[in-house]
Amino acid sequence: MLKIYNTLTGKKEPFEPLTAGTVKMYVCGVTVYDECHLGHARSALVFEMIRRYLEHSGLSVTFVKNFTDVDDKIINRANELKIPWQAVTARYIDTYYRDMGRLGIQPATVEPKATEHMAEIIALVQVLIQKGVAYQVNSDVYFQVEKYGAYGRLSKRKLDDMQAGARVEVDERKRHPMDFALWKGAKPGEPSWDSPWGKGRPGWHIECSAMSMKHLGETFDIHGGGADLIFPHHENEIAQSCGATGKEFARYWIHNGFVQINQEKMSKSLGNFFTIREIFEKWGYREPVTAEALKYFLLSSHYRSPLNFSDQALLEAKRALDDFYDLFGRLEDSPSAKNSGKISDNDPVRKAAKQLPKAVGEFGEDFRDRMDDDFNTPDAIAMFHKLQTLVNTQLRIGFSDDCIKARDVMRSFGKVLGLFQLPVREWQFQDRAIKLEAEHLIPDSELERLIVERSEAKKRRDFARADEIRQALAAQGITLEDRPDGTTRWKR
Fold this sequence. Notes:
Number of strands: 15
CATH superfamily of the largest domain: HUPs
Radius of gyration: 28 Å
Shape: elongated
């Protein structure tokens, strides 16, 4: 049975959806004022993995991921660029979809924007005022944290000990320093909407409560996001949502860990900030290759753990995947001959190879055991490596059908993690495609034609022409490997 670490309770709990067979999940998306960075990539891949595994387990998932498209940062960026704030949000929503496409992230079921839910936001603020847990000051409306007795239960903080944190505004008009804005009165030059309290715009926290309840109901299964959102954002979401409905808001809270650079949290202020675009451009591999390498790297650590990024770590991820795709390539080329019999039954190699059929047969159950333990992707990836080792051991003796079964199992369950999904040739021979195209090297179609011509030359015993073709291709950095069955394999 799936167990999830619930930030709200601080322990792993059996996952029991509100409605059998279905899961309703909300994840806080990006504020669209800049390009997505590596931290956004980690969060996106983590919740994509969770979504895929829930669906793999037979559950129907309604996944909602929002855009914050009105915010102080957006207004500041618009002023900096001297363009309308709508142009800023449109630009960075486009770059978000570009980056998610590069990473192979599926769109959420619903991707709401705050600016499209003003009616729901205003209605929710009105309810909070009516319930006596919010108050108006001129054109601003604040949530009164002292009226919600359970405030701090997600972040495990006591109200008396709290200090104003990120996005908590100091305002002498507030009844308590930790009271937070639900509605902000309009300022000159800023975007605004009509409301019962005058023109203004929503505070950051209220939008997620309004949008999640609009699309998933007053209580739903999973709420997720980065660990940096636990306080104040998610803490405030719980307070205002429960304060409005009197019901539990989300039953399971999932948070992914920070991305670190040299053991420090990635941030612009420290100058250790990497956008997704920069990573793809820096590596120069085709996008699907870089995407799988990035997924492997990010999922090799547990989603709740801090993750230290480096070029070397990403290179090691690429090399690990090279080994898998090299194995898949060798399996495509393996002759149908069975074991050679040259290794005795008592040899350790043969003894190890005998474990392969059992490992293939039990892989699915073992994979689910790992993933059911709070989505333990590092242990799941270790299982793929164990199966890879067994297949390589078997190939030292000879090809067997179990090798193909193992490959199919790795590809099938790898899909849950977004791994091992590319054609072997695309991985092995095209990861340097940008460089090859820049050098105007021979295209694949012409290469295949020359290989056929060389094969025909050999058949008519025109070895001079066959050697000429081989040498010409070698000059282009292309190696030909003639196989026993008469076919030829090429590699750049």
